[in-house]
Each structure stands twice: as structure tokens, then as C-alpha cells.
Design goal:
10 strands, seven-stranded mixed β-sheet, Rossmann fold, three-stranded antiparallel β-sheet, alpha/beta
Amino acid sequence: MTEYLLSQRGSLELERSRLQLLAEVHDPLTARQLDAVGVGEGWRCLDVGAGGGAVTRMLAERVGPTGSVLAIDLDTSLLEGLADDRVQVRRQDLLAAELPRDAFDLVHARLVLMHLPSRLEALRRLVHAARPGGWVAAMDPDFGTVELSPGSRAWQRTWSAYFDAVIAGGWDPRYGARLCDDLRAIGLTEVEAEHVGSRGPGGSTRARLLSLTLERVRERLIAFGAAGEEIDEARLALENPSNSFSSPMTCVARGRRSPA
């Protein structure tokens, strides 16, 4: 299995809370993306890295009783309750097992590619799963745009350790900046992207999401040089409304597989 640093093992409730914030931040972006693609009645959709199922639910609503959604993830414990005549849930590693080929009107991957060690290979698999003329839609962040003001040594050490830890785990924390170019490089047509970020007070939904993410990788941050009290201080700073926070820039991109 591909390693995933945010595995739910031993942290299910914390991960549920993090995924809820993630959905609050990203669901409106996903809805606009699906509107732009035109997902509707009867579509066959694949949701890769379905996580807590927010996008799977959204897709199931749109495709109606004549459509279908296949939701895959390394851990399907939060997805099992969605399985029905319209939704199929499958435990699967994108890079370790083949997907159905030429099968889907839409192949969707939200906040997935940044975690994978071979992103172009992952994209090839997504493209091959789409039918000729079908769509591939993806969303990934660029954490290089994150700023917290006023800064502190605890924040700087924690944030530096975060980058070191996730890169060592196979992530690319700046992949959102490359996503659109990679969709073109893989041969998709009609590629378009929206880049979305925000600046506001600490304690916003985006700031609290990052705070919970730091908590989820606490042990790795400590292994890469951050102290526990520094992580606590950094989290408090993220959640302090008197501070200013610039969020990751999120790339919301889509492209179409050539009909030929």
C-alpha cells in the first residue's frame, strides 16, 4: 500500500473532525467544479481517495438513480455506510491496482495527488479510467502560500518541520502549483483551472483545518525537530483571531480525455 501520513488508525475521531472542516472548505469549490463539467443524471463517476465521502454523496445526488459512483480509498471505514444500488465502495490503492479502463464519464480526485510518490503515473491511471471524451477533475493545494502574522520561533520551527516531515513521507506540499501543467502534460484537452486562497483572521475554518492537520502529524513533526510545546503554541496561534492567516492556494482543475 502507498503510505498515507493521515491514516485513520488510532485517530478516527480526530480525523472525522478534520475531514468535516476539509469538507466545509472544499465542498463549495467541488460543487463549482462539477457544475463546470456538467455532471448530471446517468453519469458514471469514479471518486478516488474518497475519504469521508463528501464528494461521493455530492456525485450520487447528481447522477440520480440511473447513474453510478465508484468510491475508492485506502481506508473505507468512513465510506461503508454510503454503499447502495448507486454507490459502490472499494478499498484500493490507486498505484497498486488497476482501475476499470475507459469506464467513467468523470474521474475525480480531491486532495489526492499531492500525497502520491508518482503523480504522473497516478494521472495516467486516472486518464485511462475515463472514457474517451470523459473528464478528469482534480484539486490540490500549494502550502507555499501559507503565512501567519505575527510570526514566532515556535511557528517557524513547526512549519519547517511540517514541510520536512511531509516531503520525507512522499508528499509534495506545493503540488497545487504544478497540477494544471501536469494535466496538460498527460495529454488532456480543454484544461482549465481556478486558484483559490484567502487571507483572514486566525480561527477561520481554513486556519482550524491546518491546526488539526498539524495535530494529526504531531509525532512526525517531533521526529523532524519540532518540540511538543512548539506545536501547541503554533496551533494556538493559528486559532487566535487576533492573528492574520493566509491559507494554502488551492488549484481546482479539470481536463478532458481526447475522444480519439
